[in-house]
Structures are given as structure tokens and as C-alpha cells.
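Hi D.,

Good news: the full-assembly prediction came through. Inputs first.
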Amino acid sequence: MNHQHFRDWLLSEEKLSADQIQQMQEHLQSCESCSQTEVAWLEVESAFRKVSRVQPAPGFTNRWQTHLAEYKVHKQKRTGWVTIGFIVVIIISLLGLLITQLWSLLQAPGPYLAEWFTRIFNLVAIYLTLQDMFRSVSGTVPLYIGGMFFLVGIVSFMSVLWLATYRKLSLARRIV
Amino acid sequence: MNNMEPDFLNQVRIGSPEAFTQLVDTYQRPVFNLCYRMLGDANEAEDASQETFLRVYKNIKRYDHKRAFSTWLLSIAAHHCIDQLRKRRMIVVSMDALPYLDPPDLSPGPEASFHMLEDQKRVEELLKFLNSQDRAAVVMYYWYDFSYEEIAQSLSITVSAVKSRLHRARITLAQNWQKQGTNNFSTERKTHESPAF
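Then the structure:
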């Protein structure tokens, strides 16, 4: 049996059989390196047992409370800024949209109105197609409810997906 | 380490500030001790402990009641310390930043206190030879009596990986202990030698 094997036995927590103990003792008598390793490891274990547990400086809980209060203030501020930023982005987007639409209307009122009429017509066509699809699925449910459910369902699913992704990405790592 | 009662943990979960303060009071020492053993510096251990409790506060709703609370808490502390060690890579320990030691059971004389401090420093030096994951496994095993399964769960590794990490750590510790002993011996001899030589 090789030298490495005995060192593994020495440092292993597994229980050795009587025969293995006998072999180990014989090896330790002849191998200075292994007997030194054994002594060193016993001393390390003894030192681990001897060193006392350390404790934080007095007032840890008070410092924690201060830390928590700072965190809450910081979080509140951040939430406030995020909300303001969100509202500003929405307002700017709406204003931009409004200005471009007004600009188009003032430049060429006829084609602009015709374009919008086409868009509304397309939306109604999609809605009627959805109703037809649901008519085949169920004859008892009112037609408009089926189409509504389908549209609302898609919007809800997308919202939930977005929220779940945001939550997953924003959570602290490795809290198992 | 005693585990929290379910009623008390429920109070913590619903956000009771008193309950959380009591939780910090109860667990500050084990958390700080683990952080100190991992980081080797009292100031950093203080910051890491505070951050651990903040993470617990933010994620308390994610705590699984089937697990021991102390295991969950210490795993958060260990992961945070591992991240800190990875960030700094090089460990620089300030000897001015020594932590408060537990009051000993018997009042030791100056010599016993000196030896205690020496042992403390020697163990700190020794732990620095281990990488962060091995160090976490050793600290949990020898200071917290965690089982292999608990360590595996805390460090998100397998039980066999825990065993092999501990085995590797024992080899490293024994070898470096021998080296430390040799160095101390030669230093002692030099200090007692005549300055003329």
C-alpha cells in the first residue's frame, strides 16, 4: 500500500477497521513524514478547539438599526426617483406622439384621416376574426366575450411574464 | 446554536421590527464569528455581518421553514464572505482590527491570555492558506458542527464535494501548520541569538 493511502486514512473522518488501524500504526512507526502529518493535524484540531469564538463590538444591534433605517430611506428615495422617471418618460413619449400626430394632421389632413380610418377598420376586422374563431369553439358564450377574453388574456400573460422576469433579475443573488 | 421558534419566525416574516431586532440580537455572534473566520478582519466582518442581516431582512419571505433557520442564515453569510474574498483576492489583515474575544470561563493570567492570542493569530494565518469555499466548509464543520449535508446545502455543492474539500483542507492545514512551527522555531532561535551574529 502506498504512502498517499495512509495519509488519506490519517486525515479521513471515516472509521477504520481493526486491521486498518494495525497497518496504520505499523506505517507510522516507519514513516516520519506521515507521523509528522498526524501530529500536525492533531495540533491543528486542538488549536481550533482552543480559540474562542469572536464577537462583534458592543452595540451591534444599534448599528444594525441605523443601517436598516439608512437602507429604508435609500430605498424610499430610489422608489421615488424611479416613479418620477417613469412618469416623465411616459409624459415625454405621449407629448412626442401628440406633436408628431398634430404635425401630420396639419401637413396633410385628408390622407391623415384616411390612414386613421384604415387603422380602425383593420382593428375591427381583427376583432371580428377573433369572434369567428371563438364561435367555432363555443356556441353558448356571447361572441364578443370570446374575443375580449383572448385579447385581455394575451395582454395579461405578457404583463405577468414581464413582471416575473423583472423580479427574477432584480432579486439578490444566491439567497438559497 | 438554538433555532428560532416558528411563531417568532412568522413575526419576523410579517415584518415586525421588534422580532427582527431580537433575531439580530440572537444571531449576531455566530454570524460575526463566521464572517471573522472567513475574512480575518474585524472591520470587514462587521460590515459583512450587517450586510448578511440586511439580506435576511430583504429575503425573509424566501426562507423555507423546512430548513433550520441558522443554516439558512449562515449560508447567506458564507456566500457573502466568499464573494468578498473573490473581490479582494489578496487578504490584508490589519492587526489593529482585532475583534472582541469571548470572555474565558476561567480568568487566565497574562501568560494564558498571551497564548490564547497567539493561538488566535496562528489559526487566522492558517485559514488564509485555504481558498474561500474550503475555508467556509472548515469553519462550518469545526466551529458550527454542521453536518456534511448542511454544509452541502449551505454552499450549494454535493456531499462528496464537501468531503473532498474538507480532506484537501486538512492536508493544506497540516502542511502549513508544520511550516509555521518550523518558522516560529527558527525565529525564536534567532531572537535569542547574540546580535553580534
